[in-house]
Design a protein that fits this description.
Mean pLDDT: 91
Oligomer: single chain
Strand content: 15-25%
CATH topology of the largest domain: Alpha-Beta Plaits
Number of domains: 3
CATH class of the largest domain: Alpha Beta
Number of helices: 11
Helix content: 25-40%
Number of strands: 11
Radius of gyration: 21 Å
Shape: globular
Largest sheet: 4 strands, antiparallel
Structural class: alpha+beta
Distance between the termini: 44 Å
Protein backbone atom coordinates (compact mmCIF):
# COMPACT_ATOMS: atom_id res chain seq x y z
CA UNK A 1 0.00 0.00 0.00
CA UNK A 2 2.81 2.39 0.86
CA UNK A 3 4.23 2.02 -2.66
CA UNK A 4 0.88 1.74 -4.44
CA UNK A 5 2.27 -1.58 -5.66
CA UNK A 6 0.92 -3.58 -8.57
CA UNK A 7 2.04 -6.54 -10.63
CA UNK A 8 1.52 -8.82 -13.59
CA UNK A 9 -2.28 -8.64 -13.44
CA UNK A 10 -2.51 -4.88 -12.95
CA UNK A 11 -3.79 -4.48 -16.52
CA UNK A 12 -7.14 -5.86 -15.30
CA UNK A 13 -7.13 -5.50 -11.53
CA UNK A 14 -5.25 -2.24 -11.09
CA UNK A 15 -2.78 -1.17 -8.42
CA UNK A 16 -3.10 -1.14 -4.63
CA UNK A 17 -4.93 2.19 -4.70
CA UNK A 18 -7.73 0.58 -6.72
CA UNK A 19 -8.35 -1.98 -3.96
CA UNK A 20 -8.15 0.24 -0.88
CA UNK A 21 -11.51 1.35 0.50
CA UNK A 22 -10.34 2.60 3.88
CA UNK A 23 -7.32 2.90 6.16
CA UNK A 24 -6.49 3.31 9.81
CA UNK A 25 -3.42 5.49 10.16
CA UNK A 26 -1.33 6.65 13.11
CA UNK A 27 -0.22 10.22 12.48
CA UNK A 28 3.21 11.48 13.63
CA UNK A 29 1.73 13.03 16.78
CA UNK A 30 0.15 9.73 17.84
CA UNK A 31 -3.40 10.42 16.69
CA UNK A 32 -5.24 7.41 15.22
CA UNK A 33 -7.48 8.36 12.30
CA UNK A 34 -9.89 6.32 10.19
CA UNK A 35 -9.94 7.27 6.53
CA UNK A 36 -12.28 6.19 3.76
CA UNK A 37 -15.29 3.93 4.15
CA UNK A 38 -16.38 0.32 3.90
CA UNK A 39 -18.59 1.15 0.93
CA UNK A 40 -17.80 0.84 -2.76
CA UNK A 41 -18.70 4.47 -3.41
CA UNK A 42 -18.42 7.64 -1.34
CA UNK A 43 -18.55 11.36 -2.03
CA UNK A 44 -17.74 12.90 1.33
CA UNK A 45 -14.93 15.39 0.98
CA UNK A 46 -11.29 14.80 0.19
CA UNK A 47 -10.43 11.09 -0.21
CA UNK A 48 -7.53 11.16 2.25
CA UNK A 49 -7.14 7.39 2.20
CA UNK A 50 -5.97 7.66 -1.40
CA UNK A 51 -3.37 10.24 -0.37
CA UNK A 52 -1.70 7.75 1.97
CA UNK A 53 -1.54 5.04 -0.68
CA UNK A 54 1.83 5.54 -2.34
CA UNK A 55 3.09 7.97 0.32
CA UNK A 56 5.94 5.58 1.22
CA UNK A 57 5.57 6.07 4.96
CA UNK A 58 6.23 9.81 4.78
CA UNK A 59 2.85 10.93 6.16
CA UNK A 60 1.95 8.35 8.82
CA UNK A 61 1.92 4.68 9.75
CA UNK A 62 -0.78 2.53 8.14
CA UNK A 63 -1.98 0.01 10.75
CA UNK A 64 -5.13 -1.38 9.10
CA UNK A 65 -6.64 -1.47 5.64
CA UNK A 66 -10.11 -2.29 4.32
CA UNK A 67 -9.77 -3.77 0.84
CA UNK A 68 -12.10 -4.40 -2.06
CA UNK A 69 -12.77 -8.10 -2.46
CA UNK A 70 -12.36 -9.75 -5.87
CA UNK A 71 -13.36 -13.43 -6.26
CA UNK A 72 -10.69 -15.76 -7.63
CA UNK A 73 -11.60 -16.59 -11.26
CA UNK A 74 -12.70 -20.16 -11.93
CA UNK A 75 -11.02 -20.24 -15.33
CA UNK A 76 -7.63 -18.93 -16.37
CA UNK A 77 -6.11 -19.39 -19.84
CA UNK A 78 -2.53 -18.42 -20.69
CA UNK A 79 -1.19 -17.79 -24.19
CA UNK A 80 2.08 -16.92 -25.87
CA UNK A 81 3.03 -15.28 -29.18
CA UNK A 82 6.44 -14.76 -30.77
CA UNK A 83 7.42 -11.73 -32.85
CA UNK A 84 10.37 -11.33 -35.18
CA UNK A 85 10.33 -7.57 -34.57
CA UNK A 86 9.76 -5.64 -31.37
CA UNK A 87 7.51 -3.20 -33.21
CA UNK A 88 5.13 -6.01 -34.19
CA UNK A 89 4.69 -6.85 -30.53
CA UNK A 90 4.08 -3.17 -29.82
CA UNK A 91 1.40 -2.98 -32.50
CA UNK A 92 -0.26 -6.04 -30.98
CA UNK A 93 -0.25 -4.49 -27.50
CA UNK A 94 -1.91 -1.33 -28.79
CA UNK A 95 -4.46 -3.26 -30.83
CA UNK A 96 -5.38 -5.57 -27.95
CA UNK A 97 -5.90 -2.68 -25.55
CA UNK A 98 -7.90 -0.68 -28.11
CA UNK A 99 -10.10 -3.64 -29.07
CA UNK A 100 -12.14 -3.80 -25.89
CA UNK A 101 -10.44 -7.01 -24.81
CA UNK A 102 -9.77 -7.29 -21.10
CA UNK A 103 -6.66 -9.44 -20.65
CA UNK A 104 -5.79 -10.30 -17.08
CA UNK A 105 -2.12 -10.31 -18.04
CA UNK A 106 -0.12 -8.93 -20.95
CA UNK A 107 3.66 -9.27 -20.59
CA UNK A 108 6.49 -8.26 -22.90
CA UNK A 109 9.80 -10.15 -22.93
CA UNK A 110 12.63 -8.71 -25.04
CA UNK A 111 15.54 -10.32 -26.88
CA UNK A 112 18.05 -9.78 -24.05
CA UNK A 113 15.72 -11.46 -21.58
CA UNK A 114 15.14 -14.33 -24.02
CA UNK A 115 18.88 -14.81 -24.45
CA UNK A 116 19.43 -14.67 -20.68
CA UNK A 117 16.93 -17.41 -19.82
CA UNK A 118 18.10 -19.57 -22.71
CA UNK A 119 21.70 -19.32 -21.48
CA UNK A 120 20.91 -19.91 -17.82
CA UNK A 121 17.92 -22.25 -18.00
CA UNK A 122 18.33 -23.87 -21.44
CA UNK A 123 14.64 -23.27 -22.20
CA UNK A 124 15.02 -23.19 -25.96
CA UNK A 125 12.89 -20.08 -26.44
CA UNK A 126 12.82 -18.84 -30.05
CA UNK A 127 15.50 -16.30 -30.98
CA UNK A 128 13.15 -13.42 -31.68
CA UNK A 129 13.03 -9.76 -30.69
CA UNK A 130 9.95 -10.12 -28.52
CA UNK A 131 7.57 -12.56 -26.89
CA UNK A 132 4.14 -11.64 -25.54
CA UNK A 133 2.51 -13.60 -22.73
CA UNK A 134 -1.23 -13.00 -22.50
CA UNK A 135 -3.90 -14.30 -20.17
CA UNK A 136 -7.66 -14.14 -19.87
CA UNK A 137 -9.62 -15.15 -16.78
CA UNK A 138 -13.20 -15.20 -15.56
CA UNK A 139 -16.07 -17.17 -14.08
CA UNK A 140 -17.50 -18.38 -17.41
CA UNK A 141 -15.30 -20.52 -19.65
CA UNK A 142 -17.01 -19.43 -22.87
CA UNK A 143 -16.22 -15.81 -22.04
CA UNK A 144 -12.58 -16.65 -21.36
CA UNK A 145 -12.43 -18.61 -24.64
CA UNK A 146 -13.76 -15.59 -26.49
CA UNK A 147 -11.17 -13.25 -24.96
CA UNK A 148 -8.18 -15.52 -25.51
CA UNK A 149 -9.17 -16.22 -29.12
CA UNK A 150 -9.54 -12.51 -29.85
CA UNK A 151 -6.13 -11.72 -28.36
CA UNK A 152 -4.54 -14.60 -30.27
CA UNK A 153 -6.12 -13.38 -33.50
CA UNK A 154 -4.87 -9.83 -32.97
CA UNK A 155 -1.33 -11.09 -32.37
CA UNK A 156 -1.50 -13.15 -35.57
CA UNK A 157 -2.73 -10.14 -37.55
CA UNK A 158 0.38 -8.20 -36.47
CA UNK A 159 2.96 -10.84 -37.29
CA UNK A 160 2.80 -13.08 -34.26
CA UNK A 161 3.65 -16.73 -34.82
CA UNK A 162 4.00 -19.92 -32.79
CA UNK A 163 0.83 -18.81 -31.00
CA UNK A 164 -0.56 -21.24 -28.46
CA UNK A 165 -2.73 -21.12 -25.36
CA UNK A 166 -3.85 -23.53 -22.68
CA UNK A 167 -5.90 -23.96 -19.51
CA UNK A 168 -3.62 -26.77 -18.32
CA UNK A 169 -1.40 -25.70 -15.36
CA UNK A 170 1.55 -27.77 -16.60
CA UNK A 171 1.39 -26.17 -20.04
CA UNK A 172 1.01 -22.74 -18.47
CA UNK A 173 4.12 -23.36 -16.36
CA UNK A 174 6.04 -24.27 -19.50
CA UNK A 175 4.88 -21.19 -21.40
CA UNK A 176 5.60 -18.80 -18.53
CA UNK A 177 8.94 -20.31 -17.45
CA UNK A 178 10.95 -17.71 -19.34
CA UNK A 179 9.24 -14.84 -17.53
CA UNK A 180 9.27 -16.46 -14.09
CA UNK A 181 12.93 -17.45 -14.29
CA UNK A 182 14.09 -14.19 -15.82
CA UNK A 183 15.37 -12.36 -12.76
CA UNK A 184 17.89 -15.00 -11.58
CA UNK A 185 18.88 -15.69 -15.18
CA UNK A 186 20.02 -12.11 -15.75
CA UNK A 187 22.71 -12.48 -13.10
CA UNK A 188 24.16 -15.37 -15.11
CA UNK A 189 24.10 -13.59 -18.46
CA UNK A 190 27.87 -13.18 -18.70
CA UNK A 191 30.97 -13.49 -16.55
CA UNK A 192 31.60 -10.44 -14.31
CA UNK A 193 28.29 -8.76 -15.24
CA UNK A 194 25.89 -8.09 -12.38
CA UNK A 195 22.20 -7.37 -12.86
CA UNK A 196 21.53 -3.92 -11.40
CA UNK A 197 18.18 -2.19 -10.95
CA UNK A 198 19.20 1.42 -11.45
CA UNK A 199 16.35 2.25 -13.85
CA UNK A 200 13.83 -0.44 -13.14
CA UNK A 201 10.31 0.80 -12.88
CA UNK A 202 9.20 3.44 -15.35
CA UNK A 203 5.82 3.49 -17.08
CA UNK A 204 4.84 4.82 -20.49
CA UNK A 205 1.53 4.86 -22.38
CA UNK A 206 1.12 1.29 -23.61
CA UNK A 207 1.22 2.51 -27.21
CA UNK A 208 4.88 3.48 -26.57
CA UNK A 209 6.02 0.18 -25.00
CA UNK A 210 7.88 -1.09 -28.07
CA UNK A 211 9.42 2.31 -28.71
CA UNK A 212 10.54 2.45 -25.08
CA UNK A 213 12.14 -1.00 -25.28
CA UNK A 214 13.89 -0.10 -28.54
CA UNK A 215 15.16 3.14 -27.01
CA UNK A 216 16.53 1.27 -24.00
CA UNK A 217 18.45 -1.09 -26.30
CA UNK A 218 19.83 1.78 -28.40
CA UNK A 219 20.90 3.81 -25.36
CA UNK A 220 22.58 0.76 -23.84
CA UNK A 221 24.51 0.02 -27.03
CA UNK A 222 25.59 3.64 -27.34
CA UNK A 223 27.10 3.52 -23.85
CA UNK A 224 28.65 0.07 -24.08
CA UNK A 225 26.12 -1.56 -21.75
CA UNK A 226 23.71 -4.48 -21.91
CA UNK A 227 20.14 -3.71 -20.86
CA UNK A 228 16.95 -5.72 -20.90
CA UNK A 229 13.45 -4.30 -21.29
CA UNK A 230 10.44 -6.30 -20.14
CA UNK A 231 7.29 -5.66 -18.19
CA UNK A 232 3.56 -5.47 -17.72
CA UNK A 233 2.94 -3.97 -21.14
CA UNK A 234 -0.85 -3.79 -20.87
CA UNK A 235 -0.39 -1.34 -18.01
CA UNK A 236 2.59 0.37 -19.65
CA UNK A 237 4.98 -0.73 -16.89
CA UNK A 238 8.54 -1.23 -18.15
CA UNK A 239 11.21 -2.98 -16.11
CA UNK A 240 14.82 -2.86 -17.13
CA UNK A 241 18.04 -4.19 -15.68
CA UNK A 242 21.53 -2.96 -16.51
CA UNK A 243 24.04 -5.79 -16.85
CA UNK A 244 27.39 -4.25 -15.91
CA UNK A 245 30.71 -4.77 -14.18
CA UNK A 246 30.04 -3.00 -10.88
CA UNK A 247 33.75 -2.89 -10.03
CA UNK A 248 34.44 -0.45 -12.88
CA UNK A 249 33.91 3.25 -12.38
CA UNK A 250 33.54 3.86 -16.12
CA UNK A 251 30.60 1.44 -16.19
CA UNK A 252 28.90 3.38 -13.41
CA UNK A 253 29.36 6.63 -15.30
CA UNK A 254 28.00 5.06 -18.47
CA UNK A 255 25.03 3.67 -16.54
CA UNK A 256 24.24 7.04 -14.99
CA UNK A 257 24.23 8.71 -18.41
CA UNK A 258 22.11 5.92 -19.89
CA UNK A 259 19.58 6.23 -17.08
CA UNK A 260 19.30 9.97 -17.64
CA UNK A 261 18.63 9.51 -21.37
CA UNK A 262 16.06 6.77 -20.80
CA UNK A 263 14.07 8.79 -18.29
CA UNK A 264 14.22 11.81 -20.59
CA UNK A 265 12.53 9.68 -23.25
CA UNK A 266 9.96 8.45 -20.72
CA UNK A 267 8.99 12.00 -19.79
CA UNK A 268 8.88 13.07 -23.43
CA UNK A 269 6.23 10.47 -24.33
CA UNK A 270 4.10 11.24 -21.27
CA UNK A 271 5.41 8.49 -19.01
CA UNK A 272 6.29 8.47 -15.33
CA UNK A 273 9.32 7.69 -13.19
CA UNK A 274 7.83 4.84 -11.18
CA UNK A 275 4.98 2.50 -12.03
CA UNK A 276 4.77 0.29 -8.96
CA UNK A 277 7.88 0.27 -6.76
CA UNK A 278 7.86 3.86 -5.57
CA UNK A 279 10.52 6.57 -5.42
CA UNK A 280 12.36 6.07 -2.13
CA UNK A 281 15.80 7.53 -2.77
CA UNK A 282 17.04 5.79 -5.90
CA UNK A 283 14.60 7.53 -8.26
CA UNK A 284 14.48 10.85 -6.44
CA UNK A 285 16.42 12.84 -9.02
CA UNK A 286 14.27 11.71 -11.94
CA UNK A 287 11.08 12.05 -9.88
CA UNK A 288 12.01 15.64 -9.03
CA UNK A 289 12.55 16.42 -12.72
CA UNK A 290 9.17 14.93 -13.59
CA UNK A 291 7.25 16.69 -10.81
CA UNK A 292 9.31 19.87 -10.54
CA UNK A 293 6.23 22.08 -10.84
CA UNK A 294 4.41 20.23 -8.05
CA UNK A 295 7.12 19.67 -5.46
CA UNK A 296 6.10 22.75 -3.45
CA UNK A 297 2.55 21.38 -3.12
CA UNK A 298 3.82 17.92 -2.16
CA UNK A 299 6.09 19.41 0.49
CA UNK A 300 3.17 21.46 1.80
CA UNK A 301 1.09 18.28 2.17
CA UNK A 302 3.99 16.62 3.97
CA UNK A 303 4.24 19.60 6.35
CA UNK A 304 0.53 19.40 7.26
CA UNK A 305 0.74 15.77 8.37
CA UNK A 306 4.36 15.68 9.54
CA UNK A 307 5.50 19.20 10.53
CA UNK A 308 8.56 17.88 12.37
CA UNK A 309 9.68 15.65 9.50
CA UNK A 310 9.96 12.45 11.53
CA UNK A 311 8.14 10.08 9.15
CA UNK A 312 10.59 8.22 6.91
CA UNK A 313 12.87 11.27 6.63
CA UNK A 314 15.03 11.78 3.57
CA UNK A 315 12.67 9.96 1.23
CA UNK A 316 10.43 10.94 -1.66
CA UNK A 317 10.19 14.76 -1.77
CA UNK A 318 13.03 15.11 0.75
CA UNK A 319 15.40 12.62 -0.90
CA UNK A 320 18.79 13.77 -2.24
CA UNK A 321 18.68 14.23 -6.02
CA UNK A 322 21.81 12.10 -6.56
CA UNK A 323 21.55 9.00 -4.39
CA UNK A 324 24.77 7.42 -5.70
CA UNK A 325 26.69 10.33 -4.19
CA UNK A 326 24.81 10.29 -0.87
CA UNK A 327 27.47 9.53 1.74
CA UNK A 328 26.52 6.10 3.15
CA UNK A 329 25.21 4.90 -0.20
CA UNK A 330 28.27 5.62 -2.34
CA UNK A 331 29.45 2.11 -3.01
CA UNK A 332 30.75 2.09 -6.57
CA UNK A 333 34.46 1.58 -7.12
CA UNK A 334 36.50 4.31 -8.76
CA UNK A 335 39.11 3.43 -11.37
CA UNK A 336 42.63 3.27 -9.93
Amino acid sequence: IGNNASGTRSVKYGAARDSVLGLKVVLPGGRLVELGTRTRVASTGYPLERLFVGSEGTLGVIVEATLRYVPIPKFRCLGVANFAKLEQAGESITAVMASGCQPSMLELIDKVAIEAVNRAQNLGLPEVEAILLFEADGMVKEAVDFEIERISGICAEHGGFGIEYSYDPAEQARMSAGRKKLFPSLSKFAEALASTALADDMAVPYSHMAECARTIHEVAERHGLVMTAYGHCGAGCMHTKILMDTSRGDQWQAARQAISEIYEFVRRVGGTTSAEHGIGISKAGQFQKEKHGLLDLMRAVKAVFDPNGIMNPGKLVEAPPDWLEAGPLRYHVEDA
